[in-house]
Amino acid sequence: MKSLSDISLxxxxxxxxxxxxxxxxxxxxxxxxxxxxxGRNYLYITNNxxxxxxxxxxxxxxxxxxxxxxxxxxxxxxxxxxxxxxLSEKKFFVMGTESLKSEFTKSGLTVAEEADEADAVVLGxxxxxxxxxxxxxxxxxxxxxxxPYIATHPDMVCPTEYGSVPDCxxxxxxxxxxxKRRPVIIGKPEPEMIILAAxxxxxxxxxxxxxxxxxxxxxxxxxxxxxxSVLVLSGETSREDAAKSDVLPDFILGDxxxxxxxxTEAAK
Length: 268
Ligand SMILES: [Mg+2]
Hints:
This protein is an alpha/beta fold. It has two domains: 4-47 and 188-264, HAD superfamily/HAD-like (Rossmann fold, 3-Layer(aba) Sandwich), CATH 3.40.50; 87-185, Rossmann fold (3-Layer(aba) Sandwich), CATH 3.40.50. 35% of the residues lie in helices and 20% in strands. The strands form four sheets. Strands 5-4-1-13-14-15 form a six-stranded parallel β-sheet, sandwiched between helices. The longest helix has 13 residues, at 131-143. The radius of gyration is 19 Å and the shape is globular. Magnesium ion binds at residues 13, 15-17, 212-214, 235.
């Protein structure tokens, strides 16, 4: 078994791992400081494609953590990379927020103003969703059976202070019910975002750890990417859930604060 002292880059899921809603965990500031002081690095990873990195900078600032935009790796960025590498000539109809569309245009992709101009469809966590956009997506998928169809991430729900709201995965199901097509998915549990983050952090995947509170997204993305996976029990997964799961993390910690003492162990 590898040791966490071998890790040079930590990729942190945020909600349930570093904070819960608007409440920072007591160890988080010390953990982030200790990682940098030990000569290691960290980045934040998120499947949420409704917000840009600048929104997350503000969110962490509210919780007392100073972060730069390039410390966030989002499913929107990973999707933009996938589209550039595989579908760069296409014109994209984006069922997503203005923030997602500007992420795409910034990276050199063409976003269609009108659905009828589009020859590829992308779904994100569209918190600005209208029925017209749903209708446009269904029409494109039904009338152009070979049109490329991509979604930023598969999460079914997004947590809120009162419970949860439907997320991109629920939109995928809604559209499947209408047109019987499923998209290519980019965010966690797929490996693309982890590979992008490891590239940006300058670490090989074997020395990169994905740290998160969900087995079927965070841990699975680490496994799928060939990185080290760390489940923390400070969010939605209990030790009983972990024992029953067929997704097997390399490490299970009560919370991410337990990483701190490993940073001062000699690397093996
Ligand atoms: Mg989480």
